[in-house]
What does this fold into?
Amino acid sequence: MATATKHPHMQDASNGSVRVEIFDQGYNLRGTDPDYILKLAEYVDTKMRAVSQQTHTVDTARLAVLAAINIADEFHMLRKKMDGGTPDSSRRARQLLNALDEVLDERRR
It folds into this structure.
């Protein structure tokens, strides 16, 4: 479990900063949704800890890169699944989104 969830997060309202810990390192991250930032930090922390256990590596830079590769792999597999594995479905989805944007823009006028 990520350290970010063990302690209440600290938020600086003046700059939208949230203090999180990832693999025992503290970071101040900015964003509009502190809870979302915490979830992301927890996810990255979990990935780094899993890679650390599998590889027995303690080099944090190496762990960060390996965790990033794992996360990128998950992302691309999900994107491929959503696209149905075909470029046509992705292009069609973009066309539909553009058409919807045009309709919504016309209604706003």
Observations:
- Residues 103 and 109 are 10 Å apart (CA to CA).
